[in-house]
């Protein structure tokens, strides 16, 4: 198994998957393949030809691979992106395991037995699609407010997700007043913007002067650095905050389970990633 992307040299996936393979003593390996956009069809055909268990798919191929697999799972269709391909006797199915990744992180790491009725998602890119679908697909979530710098993108995504999930998805911009009114009665905010990501680590999507109530939980999908500026802002206000590393681990763990039938040791995978940051 392995991962395809362009670029791919800095992918963390081989570290965490090979750590799980070693821990379980399975006879296989996970490699990173640099695949150019014009070679995507051949790369996917190679999975069949070489009888590879499956692939992870990263930027920029998550959309392109969809036309080269035989089936697409419900959540990958809803998110509009495939990040995992599973090969069963030459029959390829495309999945999106980011949905599982964020929900498992919220349950296992942030400790949510049930998610808050009111949730806020910051951002409207690829990660926001997976996160908004994940949250809105849970029965207990009544409303998701989607705030983005480019308001038109939030509006388009909200419309799409309302149609798919039947939930109320309210779009808006990132101005302080919009953030404050969205956060005041929310129980969870998920940052899916790239603000705060290495190397611009001092960035935060939180507007100046926003009041954070202590029951509001932050899940920041940014994982490099492990502790973001936005997480520090929440913790300083007495609120709990979690970084995106666990989402990365759990989406990988779900892919691994699809390929091998075994759910891998996520603590081993997480340690392998932390090793890359230190
Ligand atoms: P993307 O599709 O490029 O979307 C980027 C988002 O960030 C857009 O909403 C964009 O707003 C916003 N943004 C960028 N620069 C901004 C700025 N200066 N001010 C305000 N908003 C800004 O990227 P993506 O794939 O969704 O990834 C976004 C983040 O999620 C990355 O940090 C990535 O590491 C993280 N992520 C984590 C995981 C995980 O497993 N933990 C998985 C996927 C992604 P506009 O629309 O206005 O440009």
Give your account of this protein's structure.
With 278 residues, the protein is an alpha/beta fold. It has 2 domains: 2-96 and 246-277, Leucine Dehydrogenase, chain A, domain 1 (Rossmann fold), CATH 3.40.50.10860; 111-239, 3-Layer(aba) Sandwich (Rossmann fold). 40% of the residues lie in helices and 18% in strands. It has 10 helices and 12 strands. It has helices at residues 13-24, 40-49, 74-79, 98-109, 126-136, 151-165, 176-183, 229-236, 245-260, 266-277, and strands at residues 2-5, 31-34, 54-57, 71-72, 84-88, 91-95, 118-122, 143-147, 168-172, 188-191, 217-220, 241-242. The longest helix is centred in the last third of the chain and has 16 residues, at 245-260. The model has no long low-confidence stretch (mean pLDDT 97). Residues 98, 101, 123-128, 148-150, 153, 192-195, 197, 205, 221-223, 244, 247-248, 251 line the site of NADP nicotinamide-adenine-dinucleotide phosphate.
Which terms summarize this structure?
278 residues, alpha/beta, Rossmann fold, six-stranded mixed sheet, 10 helices, globular, binds NADP nicotinamide-adenine-dinucleotide phosphate
What's the topology here?
Layout: E1 2-5, H1 13-24, E2 31-34, H2 40-49, E3 54-57, E4 71-72, H3 74-79, E5 84-88, E6 91-95, H4 98-109, E7 118-122, H5 126-136, E8 143-147, H6 151-165, E9 168-172, H7 176-183, E10 188-191, E11 217-220, H8 229-236, E12 241-242, H9 245-260, H10 266-277
Parallel strand pairs: 1-2, 1-3, 4-6, 7-8, 7-10, 8-9, 10-11, 11-12
Antiparallel strand pairs: 3-5, 5-6
